[in-house]
Automatic annotation (TrEMBL):
This is histidine kinase. PROSITE patterns: HIS_KIN. The lineage of its organism: Bacteria, Pseudomonadati, Pseudomonadota, Alphaproteobacteria, Rhodobacterales. The keyword Endoplasmic reticulum does not apply. Its EC number is 2.7.13.3. It comes from Roseovarius indicus. It is found in: Membrane. Keywords: Kinase, Membrane, Phosphoprotein, Transferase, Transmembrane, Transmembrane helix. The gene is phoQ. GO terms for molecular function: protein histidine kinase activity. Residues 243-444 form the Histidine kinase domain. GO terms for biological process: phosphorelay signal transduction system.
């Protein structure tokens, strides 16, 4: 999962949890508020019950019952009950039911709120109070209770939650959208980091720079330090390779001088052997110098594929192998590659020279644009080709198609190294007839 989706998933989960807890808390607060209002209403009814008590014919009666009609309707949802000594007065709504009050002690005038069972197994919210009756009512303590169906409170709470749910869902969507914007803005520098690294890879930028947020700046600074160390290592390695190649030139010149002296003394065979070895070593040294120069060139280098190919063909036509062949150069004009002209000429020259050595009558050079960022240049001959098992090993250093032929066996290796240094590759495949060697190179 991407970093963006991880943050969004974690944030959405936190929002759902937070809104769920908020909904539960609001529902509980609403239920408490409704219950408080219900208790206040019961307190009014209880005062009406206590104020309506009278004594008639020696018996305690409720002469003025509360006005709410639910007290007179059986199981109407509102109930009152007064217990004074042996007397038990009940509302008509209780019918034959007696409120089962908890066994607790109340001081005079003290009120308690309880949840008790009611008629038809309905839960009730009750408010009870104990008062001392005056002498005109017979005296002694009286325990008065007023109750209402708790289902009304629960129903009001459920209705509140039901009405609140759509707004909470809308709030969740708004908060998730805001989080999406926040994550997008917060992760934007990481996209810029990827773009800058891509620019570094393509040599369109030299360093990451310093214009980054505080959290990203350490990463950019470390990358710049790594790039600086890499450049220093490359420069040092290039210098060492150049020094080594230049250091070998002097001994090679001495060997050629010694070969000249042997030839002057009439030892032509020994002189030819030394000159051949020294010539091969000189070619290797020149190629290593070319490698060092290639490493120093940036990707800003440009080369016209058709123009370089025509120059290479023009040179090879003057060689013994090239003069006997028919050369076909089928390349579109204007195909610009991100490689130095000298490097492209050396790679194409190595492939074309190898093709001329094995071709029977024709060598064909073609180019085509492949993907948007790459092109392919192929050099094909009409020779015998190669066994399929040897194709993969042909770009190894010193590998040769004809083990008995001349040459150092470095042509394909050098072409592959040049292509890879430019960000491309070399591939070989058998055709009908012959062998096709294709360079894949980045388009400028």
């Amino acid at each position: 999962m991407s970093l963006r989706w991880r943050l969004l998933a974690a944030g959405a989960a936190a929002l759902i949890l937070a809104l769920g807890l908020a909904a539960a808390g609001l529902a509980q607060l609403f239920a408490t508020h409704v219950e408080r209002r219900a208790v206040a209403e019961l307190s009014v009814h209880l005062d009406q019950v206590m104020s309506g008590l009278e004594r008639r014919d020696g018996a305690l009666v409720l002469a003025r019952p509360p006005a709410d009609p639910r007290f007179a309707q059986p199981y109407g949802g509102l109930y009152w009950q007064v217990a004074a000594g042996e007397a038990l007065l009940r509302s008509r709504s209780l019918w034959d039911h007696e409120l089962a009050l908890p066994d607790d002690a109340l001081r005079d005038g003290e009120a308690h709120v309880h949840r008790i069972p009611g008629p038809e197994a309905a839960g009730l919210l009750s408010l009870e109070r104990t008062v001392a009756l005056p002498e005109r009512l017979g005296g002694g303590p009286a325990r008065a209770t007023v109750a209402m169906t708790a289902a009304e409170i629960d129903s009001a709470t459920r209705a509140f939650v039901t009405d609140m749910a759509p707004y909470l869902a809308l709030l969740l969507l708004v908060l998730v959208g805001a989080q999406w914007v926040q994550v997008s803005v917060g992760l934007a520098p990481l996209r810029h980091v990827g773009a800058r690294v891509s620019a570094l890879r393509r040599d369109r930028a030299a360093r990451m720079g310093a214009n980054w947020p505080r959290e990203v700046q350490p990463l950019a600074s470390e990358l710049d330090g790594l790039l600086a160390e890499r450049d220093a290592d490359v420069a040092s390695a290039r210098a060492r390779a150049g020094d080594l190649a230049h250091g070998l030139k002097t001994p090679l010149q001495a060997l050629l001088g010694e070969a000249g002296r042997l030839r002057a003394q009439g030892e032509d065979t020994a002189a030819a052997g030394i000159e051949e070895v020294a010539g091969a070593m000189r070619a290797h040294v020149e190629r290593e110098l070319a490698r060092a120069r290639t490493a120093a060139r940036a990707r800003a280098a440009r080369a016209d594929a058709a123009e370089v190919a025509r120059r290479v063909v023009g040179v090879l036509k003057r060689t013994p192998d090239g003069d006997r062949l028919d050369w076909v150069c089928d390349m579109p004009d204007g195909l610009s590659l991100a490689i130095d002209e000298a490097d492209l000429a050396e790679a194409l020259g190595a492939l074309a020279e190898n093709a001329a050595r094995h071709a029977r009558a024709r060598v064909t050079l073609t180019a085509r644009a492949g993907e948007k960022t790459a092109a392919q240049i192929c050099v094909a001959d009409d020779g015998p080709g190669l066994p399929p098992a040897r194709l993969a090993a042909m770009t190894a250093r010193g590998a040769r198609a004809d083990e008995g032929g001349q040459g150092s066996g470095l042509g394909l290796t050098i072409a592959a190294e040049i292509a890879r240094a430019a960000g491309g590759d070399l591939s070989l495949r058998n055709t009908t007839p012959g062998l096709s060697a294709c360079l894949t190179l980045p388009v400028a």
